[in-house]
Design goal:
heterodimer; A: about 350 residues; mainly beta; AttH-like fold; 13-stranded antiparallel beta sheet; ten-stranded antiparallel beta sheet; B: about 800 residues; eight-stranded mixed beta sheet
Chain lengths: ~350, ~800
Amino acid sequence: MSVRALFLCLCLAASAHAQGFAGLGMPAKGFASPRPGVELNFPDDHGAHREYRIEWWYLTANLEDSQGRPLGAQWTLFRTALAPGEGGGWSDPQLYMGHAALTSSTDHVFAERLGRGGTGQAGVWVSPFHAFIDDWSMKSLATSDADPLSHLELFAAGSDFSYRLTARAGRPLILHGDRGYSLKSASGQASYYYSQPFYEVTGEIELKGQRTRVSGQAWLDREWSSQPLAADQTGWDWFSLHFDNGEKLMGFSVRDSAKGFSSGTWISRDGRGIPLSRNSLKAFPLAYTRVEGRRIPTRWRIVLEERGVDVTLRAINPNAFMKTSAPYWEGPVTFSGTHSGRGYLEMTGYE
Amino acid sequence: MLTVALKALLSHWVRSPFQLAMMLIGLSAATALWSGVQAVNSEARASYDSAASRVSGERFARVEAPEAPDFDEEIFIRLRRAGWLVSPVLEGRTVLQGEAVRVLGVDPLTLPSGAVSVDPAASGRLGLFLSRPGLILASPDIAEKLSGAIPQAIETAEDLPEGTVVTDIGLAQTLLDRSGRVSRLIVGSQQRSGLEPLQVLAPELALRQPEAENDLARLTDSFHLNLTAFGFLAFVVGLFIVYSAVGLAFEQRRPTFRTLRALGVSTSSLSGLLMFELGLFALVGGAFGVVLGYGVAGLLLPGVSATLEGLYGAEGPQSLTLRPSWWISGMALSALGVAAASAQGVWTLWRMPVLASAKPREWARASRLVRLWQAGFACVFCISAMILLQVGHGLLAGFAVMGALLLGAALALPLALSAALEGLRRLARTPLTEWFFADTLLQAPRLSFALMALLMALSANVGVGVMVSSFRLTFNAWLDQRFVADVYVSARSSEEGDRLFAFAAPRVQEALPIWGADARLGDLPGEIFGVAVSASYREHWPLLEAVPDAWDRVETAGEILINEQLARRGDISPGDTFVLGPGWSARVAGVYSDYGNPEGQALVEISEFRRRFPDAPRLRYAFRARDGEADAFMSSLVSEFGLPKEAVIDQAQIKAVSRRIFEQTFAVTAALNALTLSVAGLALFASLMTLSSMRVSQLAPVWSMGARLPVLGALELLRTAALALLVTLAAIPTGLGLAHVLLSVVNVEAFGWRLPMHVFPWDWLQLGILSLIVALLSTLIPAQRLAFMSPSVLLKVFTSER
């Protein structure tokens, strides 16, 4: 799902104004491109792919406190390369950006960190698995025979919040698209994309000086690519949904000057990923909220006829706006209709 | 028609080139002094803005190695990984392409915004900045030299001080050949709670609190206001010249105006032409003024820089750049001056009936009414000065009082002069002396503007003179009190300091540690010093106010002494409680004078100091040698203990340095004072010159009655001398008033200390002589002209009498 690739590019282009990101419509010079038919290889592919331009470790958690109030947590590490490969120390072209957020129905707090890979300030180790920037970390607690991502400890903190979560998954990874080769647009852009959507989470958060025990579910996305999106694509809406019956759905729709492009993966209770047929997922905005001077849809109707899904999504906190270097909306949602459950919603490109 | 009319108007200036010159000189002098002072001020401010402190982020707290220039970058990673938002900076000097440059290496990804004066992440350059070979942001002088000569891309950054480049920290390490090293870490202003303390994470480093945001600006504000006030005074004095020149030109051209009007030039065209003419003068005078101002600024700059560095530790401007804003403001000022000086003339012309008498009215006719008005305004100014002095606060109020006082005195001058001259006339016994006084009385109003200018310049001179002398006297006495130890020594490390103390203690009468730590006192940066209370302190330390047994209380009861600046700022008296830091407050046992230090300071007992600041470097000591052993002890410090010679300073040296700083503090004020006085002299000269040509008709009858011309010439000299002396007499009380305001209002606000006023009448005698010389010089040419005037000129008066 190279929609997020675009997002990352925009992010760093805006935050860093980097010259290397100016030509978004251009093919990636010197970087590798995803090819179909390549078998993903774990645990190595949990680590950084420095010959690709962009990559992320993206975890979103739907939590609740002891009184059952819903909360959301986001832990993201983006990697972007000024050039493919590695360099020593300060001249390393691998740059990292961390985003973390906590969202309740009344509050939304977030923080951002930037750093270079070569100095040891940020990076991703494969064995033992550890993704980090500053004191934020996503660390594997898994035993050596299990998948490193099956048991994680997460920590992030901003000036007004912090959280420490433990996430355990009992099912295998889900490879999107063709065994992880995820085609994105009619013109052939693609990325490598897999997820671990089966986490059960426990932990503690601190929000506005209040410490609270929390528990819930989480979803990890791993994706890397080098190719940007087409110039006429203005933004996207991305959903990860945990159905109460144990099924899950990842879907996205890219808005462009034509009809748009939507795709996704249906995840069965027993942990199989079934790609959706192209444009079968339909998303209709129902209500808008004025956030940070932008008009953003915070209620959606999602229809997936082939699975008999017709649900209405509501943001837990319509103001879950990430006012980071490149701003976007990312927050927890609940839904009801033919199915009910909770999930995460990400929206970019709304002005 | 208009061209002809313009020609007719301008022809006046061709006939009186002297008047033209005076007008232009006055205008240029006024513009020059003002714009010169403004130039110096703006250069100084610009240099603070781009000063090292700003470029390298000293507005933020920082972590440094206390006794080393740099440390391992691993500590940066260690602190980041522990959650501290810190950003590394490497600073050093090197030679690039034969140019000595100061290199500042930063990490744009972690740099707090606003930490450096250039933004490495500005549009489109971050990628280049972080990539290799990389990007160098260079000050204009360096950018020119480096461009194309090295593999890195060069971008000019106007905001950087001369000889500075900013680049990525990795590249800086390469350029400076200091791989893996950083000079300091900038500490972001927002840190999350619950972080492990820095002392635990990096015990080898010390945290330094930031300078208050615009501390330098706050401290130096007073200094710049001081300069501005003098610049303005000079401008006003200069305007008097322009006023008299323009006024005269209007009066003398009345016949021309009448003729032109009669020939059909409308009032509006005539006024337009005159304004065009005046605009021309404003342009020429302004242009000269700006160029001259550049010269004045160049003249003042070294002094200003020295003062700023000596007094405030601020990096002063080193060179001038001719900024377009000067031209604009200089021209505008010049135009404003011309407008102010000629408004009256144009207004009269506008209302003049076509067939009004062309007879020149008495120029600046001193009607009773005008004098009454002046007296009225003088009263208003003096009363407002009094009121402001009582109710006003702050530096601006101080200067306003001074301005009101000066203007009031200047406006009261004509009245006072005529009263004095009237009195003198009554004493006159011979016809010639009576004529002399009567004539002087008649002349005085015509000279009044020049005399007012002289009064202002002289008063300012008296006031500043009294202030500087008072200060010098107090300061010297204070220096002798304060620096009683014979030798002042700086060790290179705390460990060496400890050894030094052990070495010296048995060899001297007293060994006094001088250990200080930066602290925030009364929410402003200041210092806390630890002192070992000893006989030297008890007997010599200059306490202004104290509770009884103050030193005993400091020694045993944990009480403190604070400097006058701190006491005034916080309105603290002995006996009050003062908060030194979190969880640390103490009773103030006394207040001491601390001249030359812009910051607050507190003294605590040395063991208390060590308990509160265990990590403060123990570097400086003062030693009181046994009688007659000072020199021997000093040489033993170098030869036996092995200190470098520069680290050992004797009392005489330290006092000499202090005195030099002191003298620099007022050097600029003195220079401006002298310039103002010269402008006033010029004003007097201009008025006398123009008067002399008009006076022929008044002198001719006296001459015809038998007074010889050389006698009349001498009388002219005498008259000016008498007027100058009278003005000097008037200037003394005005100046004393100014001195009072300077000492008890302006200095207290500007520096935080109040000085007793010391009066030096000898100085006034000198000033009287000076003003006499100025007056005589300005009257020399007119008097000589008169003495050697051809009788035919005087006779003509009777033939052409209208």
